[in-house]
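Long-time lurker. I teach an intro course on protein structure, and each term I like to show students one example going from raw sequence to a predicted 3D structure in token notation. This year I'd like something fresh instead of my usual example. Would anyone be willing to generate the tokens for the chain below so I can use it in lecture? Attribution to the forum is fine with me.
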Amino acid sequence: MVPPSSMDVTVGESIVLTCQVTHDHSLDIVFTWSFNGHLIDFDKDGDHFERVGGQDSAGDLMIRNIQLKHAGKYVCTVRTSVDRLSATADLIVRGPPGPPEAVTIDEITDTTAQLSWRPGPNNHSPVTMYVIQARTPFSVGWQAVSTVPELIDGRTFTATVVGLNPWVEYEFRTVAANAIGIGEPSRPSEKRRTEEALPEVAPANVSGGGGSKSELVITWETVPEELQNGRGFGYVVAFRPHGTAVWMLTVLASADACRYVFRNESVRPFSPFEVRVGVYNNRGEGPFSATVLVYSAEEEPTKPPASISARSLSATDIEVFWASAKEKNQGRVQGYEIKYWRHDDKEEDARKIRTFGNQTSAKISNLQGSALYHLAVKAYNTAGTGPSSATVNVTTRKPPPSQPPGNIIWNSSDSKIILRWDQVKALDNESEVKGYKVSYRWSTQRGTSVIETNRTSVELPLPLEEDYVIEIQPFSDGGAGSASQQIRIPKTTNAYARGAGPSTSNACTLSAISTIMISLTARSSL
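-- Reply from a regular --
Happy to contribute to a lecture. Here you go:
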């Protein structure tokens, strides 16, 4: 009654081919479908084919996510024990074009390539344009290239690729497109190398400097192989003293060269030179880079720093001072190197730190307390270090007290907290206590406030909103000593802080509460 209809569809669509009959319900009925002469196996081909209908008089076929391979003739066959009927439908599937064929390089120059190809199947939708892609040993995959004509229509099967690099091996492929989409690319063409040409790219980042006495060091970035444009690639290095007219030239017959050193006793230390670097290959010379100023190698500083002195800041820190040398022609100074070692150690095991620029003092940390140290200072530059200053000696201070404050107690008044603790006594090898640092903060905050005192007590405002976290630490000439364990003082409620009036028989005033003292040891935790 409803046979399947021929259809014209696009890749990716889903359709239903109907197949509905009337029959004697006393007879069993069987539907089968074949595609291009082969019976459809719904178990095996279930990704695309499915029987639908929901009643014994319908055997519709659903085709999901149609692909080009599903184009062809579909036959629905209906059988009973006494009869058999068939109906046929043709399915046309339109999709992106197939790959073009036989991409050929007909002619090639230093920057162009003439290509031709044959069209592939259009898959029932006319080709509207072609795109040409190229690949070289230096490219990341396939890249679209410029062509003449710029837009290649579907009726054109030849084009000229332009803008190629000389002396580079290329291969090409073609991609077709139609109204439905972009097709698969063709197979690559043969590989062909473009012809040679004069170099067109000069070296980048020409610079230099450093080296040894009487040397001029010149450096640059090498030109990539794909931009060398031919065989026999090399560099021409040109230089002259700043302000002179005659260039000195050196040819480096290596494509990998990136450095040249000119050595001559006439080269004065740290003298400016004008420098430029050019390129050439078998076809001739290419461009030079822009001219830059490069300085010859400098000599090490010839004078030691003067007026060396040092002082102890703590048990772990010292500070050293010096005066820079003022003599002319003593060599450019980039900074100073400080060498220091403990008296009980060997000088060859000394540690070193460096300063930069005109700095004439330095702090040295992480030292041992009550120890004698020797120090010497040298000026340095790119050529090396100069002569050493005279050695100076300094002894670090005694270490700070190792015993933390103990027997910490606190009590409250009507507006403050009073903290008290026992005096810390330094050992014989420790520096005397000069005072205490009391650090406190709210329990949920990171910011810490610090009070310094030379007494063994301190007053703090009442903690009304949050608990206090408090730590007490002695300090001395040797630095900060061992801190107490953190103690927590609970917050005071607003009503408690304001004082409660005697409104009930159990009420008491803040002044009465303030007579209660709570004692805490340093190891207590609240």
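Some talking points for your students: The chain has five domains: 7-94, 101-194, 204-296, 306-395, 406-489. The CA atoms of residues 439 and 450 lie 4 Å apart.
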